[in-house]
Design brief:
CATH topology of the largest domain: ABC transporter transmembrane region fold
Number of helices: 22
Largest sheet: 6 strands, mixed
Distance between the termini: 69 Å
CATH superfamily of the largest domain: ABC transporter type 1, transmembrane domain
Strand order of the largest sheet: 6-7-8-3-9-10
Radius of gyration: 37 Å
CATH class of the largest domain: Mainly Alpha
Strand content: 5-15%
CATH architecture of the largest domain: Up-down Bundle
Number of domains: 3
Length: 735
């Protein structure tokens, strides 16, 4: 952003305060008039009072100076007060505009923006704009007016001397003009890198449990210092260019001042100028010098302010969510149902997020959305909440198109519970009243009783006034979810939406919450998204989604009878279980039949392998295996979700998501080949694992197991197009 564009943008914020701007203009005239009058008074003091020894002239001139000084002082104090209020108002207007725009951005933009970068614009960037607006802009404006007024007086006093300055001064302004573009770009780049640095700090603070658990402190410091080293030369260049913009005019001023003194002295000797005029001329030229200094001081700060405001404008240019239609209607309470007709959502990826989805949900019906990760379940929920608009198709609420309805009337009758429900760092009562600010204490208690959390809250020392900490960190996962459920119920919703509401909880808490959700869902329309099929067997209808489409729908028994996608998903999750405390997982021998290298074993051998599997638990964010490291274990997912990622420039690429019943690493049982991808837990995860050494020990005790596995492994490797044949020593150990 150029300096001119920045000043024009600030001018737009000043328009609502024209009265204050006019007062500042008058005060500025008084300021400039007095300062130049003070310098000019030297001519009259010397030529009209001191040299001719006229005391009366001295009194008159002195009285005018004292009176002007009083007016100047009062005006200056008033001007500072007005400018302080004006600056605060403009900055608040910018902050409000930024924050309001953040609320209007669609979720897709929020997911793309980095929190550290957004915070940097509200803090560092806005602080730089504040400095430019509060300090540099008024100083630069005063200096400019002073410079122009002083220059005019110089020509009035002695135009020959004034020409010397008039010729030389513009030369001192050329270099700053030439440097302004480079300085602005350099400052913009530094701000961008500082935002990246802020994001690194934000991420590191959030990831401290992982950093400490894996001993990543030194690596984090090395990474941070590398970023600092990258910023340093950019900051040096930006600062040097900014100072050069200030230094060049100053040097030219010094040279011009020396020339004026010498030429003026020669003119005074030849009596072509009076001593008083020469002294006044030099005093006024000092005002010119101060004006140039003031401008050159202000310009670097204004350039930095322009660079920071450019980043703020980048945020403000993010496209806001579609505005409501002018004639949008307010929806009444749901009476008949919700309908989706040929709904398509296109994010510009390889395939559609939703592909011509049609679905009717009757009032009071319980619907469960299931399917693999990326099948479109959460996207469909976003459409129902009007968080985004479909690319094509319509979504209706009692026959009313949601694009022609007010969002407030829709969301007022929907209660939603997410997998990770955000709680604000305030009291439990305040977090509940987010859903209904006017709710009474009795209504809060009723909602918490329905969510089965009231007894816990009542036993707390501060009860409902208890602060929950940042993101609800002082509560357990189950307690946070129950507070979130109570918050949803406080709206007295006609429709309840549960989006993976229990997936991050331990088995016992999940079972309790599942029963709670079934109870509170009675006589309400409920829509549940889950990857754990056991929790939705009692739903009125289960909708199976695959690659953005509805593959099949029906009751649990109906879908199992069809032997389709649902039946396959059910079989994948069946046979794998975790006890209530979550510290012990088991798998049946029959379930192991789906693992290619174990498929040819008889039941007794598979049972022996099943008994050798160990239980592992991994917290969210923890890597189970890392790309490039030797593989030595096979895993079955018993609970939770994991992502499979691969290193790509400039970061990571997600290859897929693993859920209950999925397995990985079977080839690692017989080869030391490095892992081709990293597998990382997305939620608290329980795994069944079989280490290579444990399998070798089994094979050494059972010759049949060794021979059967060796043959199965050979067939598996031959079918694999991604892995090469194992090293002979590793294969020989097994066979």
């Amino acid at each position: 952003m150029t300096l001119t564009a920045f000043l024009r943008a600030i001018g737009g914020y000043l328009r609502p305060y024209r009265g204050a701007v006019a007062l500042l203009g008058l005060a500025l005239i008084v300021d400039v008039a007095f300062e130049n009058g003070l310098a000019l008074s030297l001519k009259f003091l010397i030529d009209s009072a001191i040299v001719p020894r006229r005391f009366g002239s001295l009194v008159l001139i002195g009285s005018l100076l004292v009176g002007g000084g009083v007016v100047y002082a009062l005006t200056a104090v008033g001007r500072d007060r007005v400018y302080a209020e004006l600056g605060a108002n403009v900055l608040n207007d910018i902050r409000e505009r930024m924050f309001r725009h953040l609320q209007e951005l669609p979720l897709s933009v929020h997911e793309r923006l980095r929190p550290g970068d957004v915070v940097q614009r509200f803090s560092g960037d806005l602080s730089t704009v504040e400095s430019a607006l509060i300090v540099s802009l008024p100083a630069g404006t005063l200096a400019l007016f002073n410079l122009l007024a002083s220059a005019a007086l110089l020509f009035a006093l002695k135009w020959e001397l004034a020409l010397v300055g008039a010729v030389a001064l513009p030369l001192g302004m050329v270099l700053p003009r030439l440097l302004s573009g480079a300085a602005s770009n350099a400052a913009d780049l530094v701000r961008s890198r500082q935002a990246e640095l802020a994001n690194t700090v934000h991420e590191n603070v959030s990831a401290q449990p992982v950093v400490k658990a894996f001993g990543l402190e030194d690596e984090s410091i090395r990474s941070f210092t590398t970023q600092l080293a990258g910023i340093r030369p950019l900051a040096v260049r930006a600062s040097f260019l900014a100072w050069m913009m200030e230094r060049a005019p100053n040097l030219s001023i010094v040279a011009v001042h020396v020339a004026i003194l010498l030429v003026g002295a020669a003119l005074a000797i030849h009596r072509e100028i009076s001593v008083g005029s020469l002294v006044a001329f030099n005093a006024i030229f000092l005002n010119v010098s101060l004006g140039v200094y003031g401008i050159t001081f202000a310009i670097p700060e204004l350039v930095r302010g322009a660079a920071s405001y450019h980043r703020i404008e980048d945020l403000l240019r993010e496209p806001a969510d579609d505005t409501e239609e002018p004639d949008a209607i307010a929806l009444g309470a749901l009476r008949r149902g919700i309908g989706l007709r040929e709904v398509t959502v296109d994010y510009g990826r390889e395939r559609l997020a939703l592909d011509r989805v049609s679905l009717e949900i009757a009032r009071g019906e319980s619907i469960a959305l299931v399917g693999p990760s990326g099948s479109g379940k959460s996207t469909l929920i976003r459409m129902l909440l009007a968080l985004e608009r479909p690319t094509a198709g319509t979504i209706t609420f009692d026959g009313h198109d949601l694009t022609r309805a007010t969002r407030a009337s829709l969301r007022a009758q929907i209660g939603v519970v997410f997998q990770d429900n955000f709680l604000f760092d305030t009291s439990i009562a305040a977090n509940l009243r987010v859903a209904s600010p006017a709710a009474s204490d009795a209504e809060l208690i009723e909602a918490c009783q329905q969510a089965e959390i009231h007894a816990f809250i009542a036993d707390l020392p501060d009860g409902y006034a208890t602060r929950v900490g940042e993101r609800g960190g002082r509560l357990s996962g189950g307690q946070r979810q129950r507070v979130a459920i109570a918050r949803a119920l406080l709206r007295r919703p006609n429709v309840l939406i549960f989006d993976e509401a229990t997936s991050a909880l331990d088995p016992a808490t999940e079972a309790q919450l599942t029963r709670t959700l079934e109870t509170i869902g009675v006589e309400r329309t409920t829509i549940s998204v889950t990857h754990r099929l056991a929790s939705v067997v009692n739903a009125d209808r289960i909708v199976v989604m695959v690659e953005g489409r509805i593959a099949e729908q029906g009751s649990h028994d109906e879908l199992l009878a069809r032997n389709g996608t649902y039946q396959q998903l059910w079989e994948k999750q069946s046979g794998v279980s975790v006890n209530d405390t979550g510290d012990r997982a088991t798998v049946t021998a029959e379930r192991l039949r789906s693992v290619p290298i174990l498929a040819d074993l008889d039941d007794a051998l598979r049972a022996e392998v099943a008994s050798a599997l160990a239980t592992e638990r991994h917290g969210a964010g923890r890597a189970v295996c890392v790309e490039g490291e030797p593989g030595d274990a096979f895993y079955i997912v018993a609970r939770g979700r994991l992502e499979v990622v691969q290193a790509r420039e400039p970061g990571e690429a997600r290859l897929g998501v693993l859920e209950v019943g999925d397995f990985f690493g079977e080839i690692a049982l017989i080869t030391n080949r490095p892992r081709t991808a990293t597998v990382r837990a997305l939620t608290p995860t329980t795994l069944l694992s079989l280490r290579r050494q444990a399998l070798i020990d089994l094979c050494e005790r059972d010759e049949t197991l060794r021979e059967t596995l060796a043959a199965a492994v050979q067939r598996r490797l031959e079918r694999s197009r991604q892995l090469a044949a194992p090293d002979p020593p590793a294969a020989n150990r097994l066979t």
